[in-house]
Structure formats: C-alpha cells, structure tokens
Amino acid sequence: MRHKLKFLLTTFLLVNFFVYSQTFVRNYSGETTEHQLKMDFSPQSWGDVYLVIEVKNTGQNDISVKNSKVQFLSDAIPGLVNFVPNGGMSYPKTVSMKSSPNGDRYRNTIDIELSDESWVDYKLSSNESFKAKINLKTVTSSYESLADAVRFYPENGDPSLFVNVITTVTNNDSNTVEVTYKNNDFDTQVTKTITTTNTGLLRINKQYQIWANDFISGSTVYKSKYSKTSPLSFLPSDTNKTISVPYTKSTIKTENLIVNVNGLPNGVSTTIDLKNKDINNVTKNEKIVEGSNTITKVMEGSYSVTISSYTDTDKDIIYMPRYDDNLTISVGKPNQLDVSFVSYPIKEFTVKGFPKYLSHGTITSAASAIDEGLKKAPLSVLFKYSGIDGAGDRGKIPDMTATINTIKQARRLETNQEGKNILPVMVHYTANASGGGSGEAIKDMTEHQNLYFHYRNLIQEIKVMLSYEDADHPNPGAFVISPDLIGAIQQDVVFGNDHNIRTIKVDVNQDIKKAFKDENLSIDNIPSFSDNLKGYFQSINFLIHHVGECKIPFGYQQNVWSAGSARWVYKNANEYNDPVSEATEIADFMNDLELYTGDWKPDFIAFDRYERDCFGPVSIDSYAWTAKHWDKYLIFCKEIAERIGNAPIMLWQIPGGHMPTADENIINFDIANHSSASAPFFFGR
C-alpha cells in the first residue's frame, strides 16, 4: 500500500515548508565570464508568489551590467518590487520592467541602466551579486520550469531566449488552417489560425511538435503533411527559424453504408451519428429503424459510431444498442454495420424522500431569521447537525430542538416552492471519529454507557421525525450517519493506529436491548448481532429501518482521504494514485465491514471532499482542486458506489466559493479564504 509511510512531526513540518518555498540554482558561462542565477520562489498567504532572482559573478573576470537585462517567464503580468546590489556595484540610474504576451504566458525583461559618470561602478566583480524581487501574482506553471527560463544578459548581450519563426502554409488554396505548436519541455500548446504565413516567437533550443488540421472545402479534401499522430519535430534556433506546412488535395469519395438493425420495436426510430476521426466537422446523422437501413454518400475514412437508445415510457422499457463503435468506410467495397438492441425494464434509481431528479440542498441553523435568504433558491434538502453539540452528545440524551426546528423550517420554506417538498437531513453521530480517529470512536462504543445513550438518542430522533409524517410527507426526515467514522478507521489502519477497533468487544446486543426497553419498544424482533465493529454497524442499520418503519432514508459518509491522504489526486504528489485503484481500496475495506449488506442496508452513500474552499489557507495544501481533480473525484465516488452494491450517491458539503475574475467587484469577497473552483466546476460561470 503506497500510503504506508510514517513521518516524524519534525520531518512533516520540514516537507511542508519546502512545498511552499523552493530555491533553484543555475550556472552559466560565456566566452570569458561565468555567472550563477539563484531563484527563490515564496508563496504569500494572500495567494501571490514572490520571486527573488540573484545574479552572482562566479568567475574571475568582471561582468559589465551597465546596460544589462534579466529575462524570465510568468503566468500573469508581474510587478517589480525592488532591486538590491550586493558589493561595490553602484545603484542603477534606472531599473525598469516590460512584459509582452507569449502564448498563454508573459515574457518579461528587466532593463538595468547605469550612468556613464566616472564615479559609477558598473562592474560586477568576482563573488559580487545583485537581486531583483518580483511579484509573479498567480503561478500555474511549475516553479522549476519558470526557473529554467530565467536568463541574464550582460551589457550589449543578446537576449536570445526566443526567436521569430515564420510558418508558411502551402497548397491550401488560401483556406484558413489551424497550426498547433506543442512544447513538451514546458507542457505548453498554442494553436494559431493561418491562411498563408505567420510570424511568432518560439523558444530557442526547445523541441516543438507541430501539426495542422485536415479539412474539407467544397468537394475537396485537404490533408496536412503533419498530423497530431505524426507531427513535425522542430528545434528553433538563430539559423533554423522557418517552418513549411504543405497540404495535399484529393476529391471526396463516398460510398453507401448498410445498417442492419435487430431488436428495435416496429414503428420507432433512433439516431446513428458518424464522426470522422481524421477530419474535423465531418459527420453524418441519420434515423434508423428495425431492419435494413441505407445511409448514402458517406465519405471514405475512419469513423466513431454513436447510436442512441430508445425508451418506451409507457411500458418502462429501455432498448440499449450493441454495435462496433469503430467503422471504416471503403470505396468500392460493401460497408455494413450490424446493430442489435437489448431490452431492459427500467428501475428507478432514486432514494425515498428525495426527488426523482438531480437535487441540491444547503446547511441551515434552522432559525426563522434566515428563511428569507433560503427562499432565494429552490431547495430539496436542508442539512442540520443533530442534538446540542452536533457531535453525538456523548453520554446523554439531548432534547430534539434542532431536529424539530429543521423540520418546521423545511415545511415553512415549502410554501414558497409550489408544492415541492424539502427533506430535512440530520447529521447524526453514533460514534465520533472526526476529532480523534479510532481512539475517540472506541470511547463512544465501549466506555461507560455511551453506546446505550447513542441508541436512545437515535431512537428518539426517529420518533420525532415520524411524528411529522403525513400524506404529503411519507418520508419526514433522513440521516447522514457518523461522518468521518469509516474513513478515520481505515486511515488509522493504514498508519497502524487503529487501536484494534475492528476486533475489540462492543456490547452491541446488551446495549441495544436496554435502549429499546427504556424507550418502551419491544425487543422481540431484535436480531442477534456480533459484539464487534461489524455488529455495531449492522445494529445501527437495523435500528433505523426498524424504528423508522422503513420511512427514514439514511447513508454513511465516506472521505477522499480514507486510504491515507487526500493528495492522491495530484499527479506530482508522492501519494498519487488513479481514482479507480483508490476507490477499489476503500470499497474493499467497506465491504469487509459489511456496511452495505443485509436486509437493513443503507439507502445511499454520502461523499465529503472537504467543506473548506479550495484555495483558502486551511485547504490549499491538499484541496486546491481544478476541474481535472474534480473529474478524478467523481470517478472515485462512482467506483466506490458501484463496488458496494450500486448505492446512490450524495455529494455532500461541496464548498460554495467561486473563482474571482480580474474585473470582479471584490469589496465584499474574501479572496484569500474563500476562492474556490468547486462552484464553477459544477455550475460554470
């Protein structure tokens, strides 16, 4: 297991420090001089990154800095903070910086000018240096790649970091084409629209992969000599700065395609889409029915095939197509595609109490004072932590004010939603591992009468929910059970700190029977549970189903960090893992605990990424997620849900912050603490 690493606290702190501040040293030599560049990157608490560039003479000969330059790349337009000479060098007459776009980054030049007076020392002697401090603002590139791009040019030195390259497109008959330039060293890619020629800057001595798109104009197919799969390799230099992209032309050739359909009901049709793999915007869209279908004039080439399913809404049957989704059309040869439809009955993949569509909710204090704010957007769910302390109220039975007020608020808000129900979901701890892992959870299960009180607490809250049942609210409430518990147990197992929670004795049978008796409930139908962790989970499942009369949906919560760390989503992190493997490890652990098995298995599973906004100081180290990280997380959630028995998914506690824009009014927006990519990912801008 990749997470089985143990760190001393001091080691962790040192590693954490170097993640934030990084230093790179590069040495350069000319015909008669040698110098060293030292780059210190220091992220600031408000999100900016400072870069200090130190230029040091490491040779024996003096270096003239009278009209010298420092060049570097950045992801945003930077600001020059200060300039400090170290040694006998005079302070410059002027130090200025200019920036110009370079693809999706900026090329920046610091010009250093010293006057010609006789008293001015414009030489950098051996072991002398100067420093320039720059505010890079936002940094999305790696620090190392930015450090590699820094250059110093002495007086009259030629800043040859880039060279103008002329790209000429031929035999395209003046049609516009898209030429793509990919720099593998910096993992950058720029696409330019060119008709005949284009002049642009490329990095000297950095390998580029270059290709252009194929296209159709009228009845002619234009194919580039260089494709994405077979690009031109090009190394820019002062002597190699021209690129030729030739095209070849041919007349479009077409052929018919026979699509044989079997299993589709008579009288109905569905759609087939053909998409050419080699040429953009070459598609074919046709209706197909049972039997033989002829699609005429399909251009020769390779295609991806997509065929739509058909749903009989009257009979609740869906017809799913089976076919080869790769197709080659050849001229002068028979082209045939066989499609068979398989019918399946439609089963609702919904959870009782929740709507039959993608729904959302919010957390509440349940105070009537916030009703007006909550009315501004339709809601399907209101979340509130149960009890008094919101953490399980260990060792006592709290009053049910929180639950009652949440239900009442949901009913009040429903009147503003044209009859659409709002389900109160209470977050209920029967064992709390959020603050202390397995060690704290064991206290809830084994010490004093804590488990007994947790059973009674849960029973009483269910009774309160059922008291609000009516014809319009057959499912008057729901639960998310014991957040962090399962994840903390597995994480503790990974790091060898689980206190044997999986094997210790838990007085499940004794405590649940005592709780039922003291709540005036019959114990006749209570099954016999194993007196351990598995039995504990099964007893919670049984209690909610039995006392709740199968009317109170519930689910456990799972964490992104359960198998050791949340940093598995980061490709360059030591803990990196693909989402399917990470999910498999967690699902196997859950299945071993038999959480989602038996007659009383939960109705859904809740996934909690972390409620804090992505780029705030508390979460930025492990949760600074962009779209690619959220994509991995959704695959991770899907894989776990499927592997524990196709449990419906609740994405829980998604932070609501957004990505601020440059022209946004941010007077009332705390960027440092509440910037996030989560809302833009799910809802867009």
Briefly summarize what is shown:
By secondary structure, the chain is α+β, with helices and mostly antiparallel strands.
Q: How would you explain this protein's 3D organization?
A:
The structure is a single chain. 21% of the residues lie in helices and 33% in strands. It contains 14 helices and 36 strands. A seven-stranded parallel beta sheet has the order 30-31-32-33-34-35-36. The two termini are 40 Å apart.
Descriptive labels:
685 residues; seven-stranded parallel β-sheet; five-stranded antiparallel β-sheet; 14 helices; 33% strand; flat; disordered N terminus
Widest sheet: strand ordering: 30-31-32-33-34-35-36
Task: Report the principal-axis shape.
Answer: flat
What portion of residues belong to β-strands? 25-35%
| Helix proportion range | 10-25%
Oligomer: single chain
Number of helices: 14
- Poorly predicted spans: 1-19
- Mean pLDDT, as a whole number? 90
Decide which structural class fits the backbone: alpha+beta
- Cα radius of gyration in angstroms: 33 Å
Largest sheet: 7 strands, parallel
Termini separation comes to 40 Å
Number of strands: 36
